[in-house]
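Sharing a chain and its predicted structure for anyone who wants a worked example. Both blocks are below, sequence first, tokens second.
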Amino acid sequence: MLRHLTAADQVVVRGVVLPSSWYPADLLLRLEMTIAAVLARGDRTRVFVDMGRCSADTNLSPGGVQRPYLREGDPHFLLRNVPRMYSSQHSSGHRTCDVTGPRSAVIRSHECADTTTDDCLTTVGWLEQAIVLSGGKGVRVVETQCMARGAACCEYRCDWNG
């Protein structure tokens, strides 16, 4: 994967990559695009959703930096903390959470710089896996509005069973 990056990007990515460090958004975007180009095999959607799921698995794992936001059997606890998690990792925009029922919520992204449809797919995957890790079954996350397509915000409707 790395050999497909520019020499400058390879220097950064081959060095010590720390989860606590801040990396330029354009570098991360180039890395994501390279991953998608190499792994997509015609299905970019699946690659970006899978990247989101992998991010949730990593960050919400027992040693993950977002683990304190996970409570087994309580997806709403995690979703209510999405705004806090987002603001700790992004320099623009914000997210909100509206609980809409005992097993549903709506997450909205507002004023996020340079949002792409690929970012939205990654968010769908992250939300799906985060809800699963919180104990949700039969999870469904659907993006109903998208800033990259001209909407005022990105909106993710989240539903689950049990």
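Comments welcome. The beta strands are 94-101, 104-110, 137-145, 153-161.
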